[in-house]
Write a structure and sequence with these properties.
Blueprint: E1 2-7, H1 13-22, E2 28-32, H2 39-52, E3 57-61, E4 76-80, H3 82-90, H4 101-114, E5 117-121, H5 134-153, E6 156-161, E7 164-169
Parallel strand pairs: 1-5, 1-6, 2-3, 2-4, 4-5
Antiparallel strand pairs: 6-7
């Protein structure tokens, strides 16, 4: 099963995704994509690792190239999150920008084949009608395209609002 969870910032997507993944068959892998840019992000990563330490996840910290991950057994994979992954793949540390839409879809396709259940967490973007610089506008447009492509091919799509999943397509497992 393939599940896409979307919603605004701070709406409970990650907490819900972790709870859902813990209810699904093991082994459970948590693919964390946050890049440690500075001391603050390192502290946040360590805090997240500690929060997951007793939750039954094998955590893989991977900023890019998710299609190269090899799993020893099928099970449940939680990808947290598409927003970080896109930024990491799209912008290099020197400030260069690449078109990575096809690469990311290919990598996620490889993940789909490597597990029984794939849960992808992403953010809802583009609905604020804001004016952004050209690079940020391309990022928002690419994330929107990725979200639409995944929503089209995934079995279940849910939007989280105040921690409550609103199922837009399919059905969440375990009665969620």
């Amino acid at each position: 099963m393939r599940i896409l969870l979307t919603g605004g910032s701070g709406c409970g997507k990650s907490t819900f995704a972790e709870r859902l993944a813990r209810a699904l068959p093991a082994p459970r892998c948590y693919l964390a994509t946050m890049r440690p840019y500075d001391e603050e992000s390192l502290v946040k990563i360590k805090r997240h690792q500690k929060q997951r330490s007793d939750a039954g996840f094998l955590t893989i910290e991977r900023e890019t190239d998710l299609g190269n991950i090899e799993f020893s057994a099928h099970g449940t994979v939680l990808l947290e999150c598409m927003c970080n992954l896109l930024a990491n793949e799209m912008f290099d540390e020197a400030g260069g920008e690449r078109d990575v839409y096809d690469k990311i879809l290919l990598d996620i396709g490889k993940l789909e084949q490597s597990c029984d259940t794939l849960i992808v967490v992403t953010n809802e973007v583009g609905s604020d009608d804001g004016t952004y610089d050209e690079s940020t506008a391309r990022y928002i447009e690419t994330l929107g395209r990725l979200n639409r492509a995944l929503a089209k091919r995934f079995d279940c799509v849910a939007e989280l609002v105040c921690g409550i999943p609103l199922v837009l397509k399919g059905q969440l497992p375990t009665g969620e």
